[in-house]
Amino acid sequence: MPPPDPVAPDLLERLVSLCKQRGFFFGSSEIYGGINALYDYGPLGARMRRNVRNLWWRAMVELRDDVEPIETSIIMNPQVWVASGHVATFTDPLVDCTGSCRKRWRADHLGDLRRERGKPEDAPGCPECGGRLTEARQFNLMFRTHLGPVADDAAQVYLRPETAQGMFVDFATVVQATRRRLPFGIAQQGKSFRNEISPSNSIFRTREFEQMEMEFFCKPGTDLDWHSYWCTERMRWWIEDCGVRAGRLRLRAHDEDELSHYSVATSDVEYLFPWGWGELEGIADRTDFDLRSHMEASGRDLSYFETETNERYVPYVVEPAAGLDRGFLTMLMDAYHEEEVRGEKRVVLRLHPDVSPWQVAVLPLSKKPQLTEVARSLEQRLRNRFRTEYDETQSIGRRYRRQDEIGTPLAITVDFDTLDDNAVTIRERDGMTQVRVPIDTLEQACEDQLVASRAAALDRARTAADQAGQSAQPQRQG
């Protein structure tokens, strides 16, 4: 049975059901009826998100000598958002339904919303009930709150809608503290908040989300070359480090009428979801817009002096900005497969082993003490090198299926023969192949299997090479 079509209309529904059942993610505050577009991440989801964060951090900070890390506050001086333009322009067009459903919608998403509901894109009225819609009005997406004990205008602040501005306002401090020379980047991960009018598609568009962003500061005139470099590098990360299939990714360059007011070039890494192409990451050439805006508003000098040429200038910035929640959903969706095994349906998440919540599961064949003692001892031993889980509940077949559903690459079975031959069986997730190995060499055997699993994930991600080759170049919509 072939893997599900990525545009199958019920793929998201099936995945969301699995994720709630197995503890990847679910609605927040569900015992009180939930709260719209806010989610909690369960034990498996928290583990997997941590793995994705670590992969990004490894690629963007630890393996590079030209990027510095930073962590800035969620609440900043409100003048930051005035200078950046968010207070005046960070808006979406809002329309209200005057019909039976009384819902609010983003005016620029109406065509997509109608299409999702099986209606013509240009159908009149509300996407839900067909009722009359009001004229569009602009709605600011920033969450307002108050600092201190009195809720008056003087104390009004905002939850940050992006992490980028913290890196811009701290640019001069980072240069002074690290003595960095251009080009170099500043990277951070953290929560952002946007009061979305019409959040949709589970965790794809939410009001609280996590960003993984880097601002790469460079000399004016070199920015377009760096933009091209980061487009290539970020596509490589999604495919090679995360195992997302290249045939379902594309790099789409924005047309001139799409570009933000601060950008001269922007390309989006997009994935083919059931509802169409959706953005995972944007790579934007922001020019010197942000640094100049903060210089003018604050009166502080954020220029850079290049000692080699005795030049002073305001750096240009290239920004690769990825969404953790969207990346998390994409990796789950891309890994989801259903197949028939001996007349039964098997659901398997073919996750890259560096992404999967667990790498190795240790499963005693039965709950008899002579087996569980050996199995627990092995699991504790393997924890020093791998992300491991111990499971002794239900039949071994059911436990294999559970590990398949949560994406665990390897399952180690301790059986009664182990007591005689001092060996265990390693079962591989995707091919369900099994090999018997001595306990004394178990760590190396697992490492070898995971190396093979990484190679298989890379090969799978690079399938449809002709599509992958095309998607590695910026594509314009036609």
TrEMBL record:
ATP binds at residues 194-196, 204-209, 279-280, 323-326. Its EC number is 6.1.1.14. GO terms for cellular component: cytosol; extracellular exosome; microvesicle. Keywords: Aminoacyl-tRNA synthetase, ATP-binding, Cytoplasm, Ligase, Nucleotide-binding, Protein biosynthesis. Residues 10-353 form the Aminoacyl-transfer RNA synthetases class-II family profile domain. One of its GO terms (biological process) is glycyl-tRNA aminoacylation. SUPFAM superfamilies: Class II aaRS ABD-related (SSF52954), Class II aaRS and biotin synthetases (SSF55681). It is an enzyme of class 6 (ligase). Substrate binds at residues 106, 162, 209-213, 319-323. It catalyses: tRNA(Gly) + glycine + ATP = glycyl-tRNA(Gly) + AMP + diphosphate. Signal peptide: none annotated. PROSITE patterns: AA_TRNA_LIGASE_II (PS50862). GO terms for molecular function: ATP binding; bis(5'-nucleosyl)-tetraphosphatase (asymmetrical) activity; glycine-tRNA ligase activity. Its main location: cytoplasm. CDD domains: GlyRS-like_core (cd00774), GlyRS_anticodon (cd00858). It is found in: Cytoplasm. Homodimer. Catalyzes the attachment of glycine to tRNA(Gly). Belongs to the class-II aminoacyl-tRNA synthetase family. This is Glycine--tRNA ligase. The gene is glyQS.
